[in-house]
Specification:
Length: about 425
């Protein structure tokens, strides 16, 4: 039975003293956006511990402002690729050489209502991270990504148009995957995809993790609706905090400029043929051809035209008639949809959280309720898994998963607060 205590137990079991791993075995380190969502759940019952989750993540920030996707506080031989494969990186703690969707500012604003002291303590770090995205990853006005892992949507079919342009060098250092040791390989990325992930890593290491060179010269460069809309929303939350903290006008002007540019750049991701915001290969201009679970984050970022939002909502209504549990990570009508293979089909708790929040805020409460309710039904059926089969509700990949427990706790807390009002 799923209870508040059972969700707390998941977070407690995954606590490693100041930071929380996603799940034991498969993911033994601190992941960037995982920790942000974990803080959201922890804040419902232990604000001090939630805050240490935020600050421990920030301790891994690089001098240039980037907060990496993974912070390695050890070298676990049961995980690949660990710190030895990533090589020497510039941060104070060994880490990956790429980032992840910057949801942290949005979470910080959500959990620190009325707490100017805590907001002030992390504002500069958040500002520096956002500036890094806009400086190191921006190409002709659109913030891009250099690695599928940076998007958080590792093997989404969207990335194939970029990966297909790559060649794996014959001298790529041999390696042994460990993820397939922990879970069914049919749930995980293919071997060819992994070879190309490692090829990007090898290029990053060859340029000393110079992030501008990685963007300009690296073998993979795509614009991602997930990073775009998460950053655009986070910029707006960062601006609200900056205004509340009385930051200098120059800081406000810079953030306002990022937001204006972000709204304008949304048009770059609009695929009129599909009728949705989709990923786009930057060097060729080619769009991906499917609706993903980040296409609807236009509502979360309060971006897009009335027509674009209407067509996006129509996709959600169409997909809702196709699956039993919303929201799948890839269009179930697409030929490359796979209900249990990582980002090729399963529904993801953190994505349902952001999508439902945006729909509620932008006047689509019915679909928001559906997306929240379906995630809760899968959790009640299967437990706190990393992701779920949208056709059956069965859990996929990692079990006793931190962000799933955290998102569920945050929603239960909202329900309790409304009942007490």
């Amino acid at each position: 039975m799923v209870t508040i205590q059972s969700a707390i137990d998941v977070l407690t079991q995954n606590d490693r003293g100041g930071f929380t791993i996603p799940t034991a075995g498969l993911y033994p380190y601190q992941w960037n956006w995982d920790s942000a969502f974990v803080a959201l759940g922890l804040a419902t019952y232990d604000m001090d511990r939630a805050w240490s989750e935020v600050t421990s993540l920030i301790t891994g920030q690089w001098p240039d402002g980037m907060i990496p996707s993974i912070i390695f506080r050890s070298d676990d031989p049961d995980y690949f690729p660990g710190p030895s494969r990533w090589g020497k990186t510039p941060g104070p703690i060994p880490s990956t050489g790429v980032s992840q969707p910057p949801v942290l500012a949005t979470i910080v604003r959500a959990i620190t209502k009325g707490d100017a002291v805590r907001r002030a303590a992390v504002f500069d770090a958040l500002f520096a991270w956002h500036r890094w995205f806009h400086d190191a990853r921006s190409v002709d006005g659109i913030v891009c990504t250099v690695h599928p892992w940076e998007t958080g949507r590792d093997n989404c079919p969207e990335w194939n148009i970029g990966l297909d342009l790559m060649e794996v060098p014959p001298d790529l250092a041999p390696y042994r995957r460990m993820d397939n040791k922990h879970v069914d390989p049919s749930f995980r990325p293919t071997q060819d995809q992994y070879d190309k992930y490692l090829t990007i890593m090898a290029f990053g290491a060859s340029v000393g993790w110079d992030q501008r060179r990685l963007t300009d010269e690296g073998p993979f460069l795509m614009a991602d609706p997930n990073i775009h809309f998460v950053l655009l929303r986070a910029d707006q939350d960062l601006l609200a905090m900056a205004q509340g903290l009385g930051k200098p006008q120059a800081v406000l002007d810079q953030i306002e400029g990022w937001i204006a540019n972000g709204h304008a750049a949304s048009e770059y991701l609009w695929n009129n043929e599909v009728g949705a915001f989709t990923a786009r290969e930057v060097r060729t201009g080619r769009f991906s051809n499917g609706f993903s679970n980040c296409s609807a984050l236009c509502f979360y970022a309060n971006s897009g035209t009335v027509e674009q939002r209407s067509r996006t909502l129509a996709h959600l209504e169409r997909i809702d008639k196709t699956v039993d549990y919303m929201l799948p990570s890839w269009d179930p009508d697409a030929t490359d949809f796979e209900a249990q293979r990582y980002w090729c089909g399963p529904l993801w708790p953190q994505m349902n959280y952001m999508t439902a929040l945006g729909l509620d805020e932008q006047g689509a409460p019915k679909m928001a309720s559906k997306i929240r309710g379906d995630l809760c039904r899968t959790i009640e059926k299967s437990g706190f898994w990393e992701c779920f089969n949208p056709l059956t509700g069965e859990g996929c990949v990692g079990e006793k998963f931190s962000w799933t427990a955290a998102v569920w706790l945050s929603w239960q807390h909202e329900i309790r607060m409304k009942g007490a009002a």
